[in-house]
Amino acid sequence: MSEAIINIKNLTKIYDDVPAVEQLSLSINKGEIFGLLGPNGAGKSTTIFMLLGLTEPTSGSIKVCGIDSTKSPLGVKQRVGYLPDDLGFYQNMTGLENLLYTAQLNGISREVAEKRAHHLLNQVGLEDAIHKKTGKYSRGMKQRLGLADVLIKEPEVIILDEPTLGIDPKGVRELLHLIKKLNQEKNLTVLLSSHHLHQVQQVCDRVGIFVKGKLLAKGTLNELALQLFGNDNYVVHVEANPITERLLNEIKELPEVTYVNQITATSIDVFCKKDITPTIAKKFMDDEIELSNISKKNYGLDEIYHRYFEGRESNETA
Ligand SMILES: Nc1ncnc2c1ncn2[C@@H]1O[C@H](COP(=O)(O)OP(=O)(O)OP(=O)(O)O)[C@@H](O)[C@H]1O
């Protein structure tokens, strides 16, 4: 059984009569990478601030590592590393000096801090920039130093708010890879807030989709697809010539098939409950019909995300 390390129940935060977060219930397991996904103003930062005990909820409860964030924010701070989107370092200090300073603020002895800092700087690939002033670091280097900075106190959970903001694609790939690696090596729980769908998709085990303070859906990509598309969870795209009326009817009658969309005379999309690509392919082969393409279409997070927002934004802006 998985062990919940973050437990949020019926959490609500109201600002000036307007809910920023509404009735949020969510539990995140130890060792999981969970993506908080949503557009600007969705309530991601407010949720993070409540998790860290920096903002008091209007109602509901929130526990991190078994500690009540509202009652014991300091206890949470000891166990949770937070990387904000506007992270700042002392520009005139080197990467190493910045890390040692953070360690000192967290009551870590100099000796332990030195060891951890060197190890972490190596891990995040900044070994050549240890003695370089952070004012001369690129945005990507600063984010990597930021990761080392949150890890110096050996937290159980790290919360990353838009960690890839302003980094070039190569830097993004490296950073995401690093996050995954740290998660696997240290069994670290990662909560990652972002509105970059593709990045979240690459690295997160589960995702929660936030819109206007509400968690609309949560789960793995497959679970989200199932919630969203229901029975039509798989789509098999077929191109063949000819697609006869008889074959079309046979496909429609397969128990796994919920709907067949005829796109052109020679192409169809078969919506089904299971991946039955081989069954469909066999039908064409048995009839000796030339099959030029048959492929299962996977729903990506992008599609899922947009499907969730379809119609919602315009309905709710009033
Ligand atoms: N201190 C505050 N006072 C009043 N309203 C606030 C405050 N903080 C946030 N809000 C409002 O709460 C809502 C959620 O904001 P929040 O910053 O949590 O969203 P977000 O998903 O993190 O967005 P972004 O990606 O832009 O940071 C917004 O409507 C915002 O205007």
TrEMBL record:
One Pfam family in the UniProt entry: ABC_tran
Species the sequence originates in: Ornithinibacillus halophilus
Alphabetic keyword roster: ATP-binding, Nucleotide-binding, Transport
Entry superkingdom: Bacteria
A GO molecular-function descriptor: ATP binding
Family indicated by similarity: Belongs to the ABC transporter superfamily.
Domain ABC transporter: 6-237
Protein name: ABC-2 type transport system ATP-binding protein
